[in-house]
Design goal:
Blueprint: H1 3-22, E1 77-82, E2 85-88, E3 98-99
Antiparallel strand pairs: 1-2, 2-3
Bound molecules: iron/sulfur cluster.
Iron/sulfur cluster binds at residues 52, 71, 74, 76-77, 88, 90, 93, 98, 102-104, 106-107.
C-alpha cells in the first residue's frame, strides 16, 4: 500500500471512529438509518404499536402485562430524552418517543 493510500485509510478510520463516538451525544442511533434525531421524534400515542399505552396502569387488564413493567425498565428503553419521554430501540418505535411510565406487549425486562 502506498503512503498516500495508507494515510487516506488512517484518516477515514479516524473519522469513522469519531463519528461513532459523537453519535450518542448528538442523539443519533445507527439502527438501519431509520431513526430520526431525538428532538424530531413525536411522542407516541396509545395504540402506536403492540398495544402500547403511555400509562402502564392502562394495561392492567392486558393478558401479557405484569405489575411493575414499565418502558423505563424494559430492555428496549434507550434513555430519557426529555420530561419522562425517551427512546425505544424496538423496530416499531424507532421514530417516536415513548413514556418512561408506558408499556407495550413487546416488553422484555432489562438486565
Ligand atoms: S418495547 Fe419496551 S421500551 Fe419500547 S414501547 Fe415497548 S415496553 Fe416501552
Amino acid at each position: 500500500m502506498s503512503n498516500d493510500a495508507s494515510k487516506s485509510r488512517r484518516t477515514f478510520l479516524r473519522g469513522a471512529a469519531l463519528t461513532l463516538a459523537i453519535a450518542p451525544v448528538a442523539g443519533v442511533s445507527f439502527t438501519g438509518g431509520r431513526r430520526a434525531l431525538a428532538e424530531d421524534r413525536p411522542k407516541a400515542e396509545d395504540d402506536h404499536a403492540h398495544d402500547y399505552v403511555n400509562d402502564a396502569s392502562d394495561a392492567a387488564d392486558h393478558e401479557l402485562y405484569e405489575e411493575g413493567q414499565l418502558c423505563e425498565n424494559c430492555v428496549f428503553w434507550d434513555g430519557e430524552v426529555e420530561n419522562g419521554w425517551g427512546g425505544c430501540n424496538h423496530p416499531d418505535f424507532l421514530d417516536v418517543l415513548v413514556n418512561a411510565e408506558g408499556w407495550c406487549d413487546a416488553y422484555a425486562p432489562a438486565g
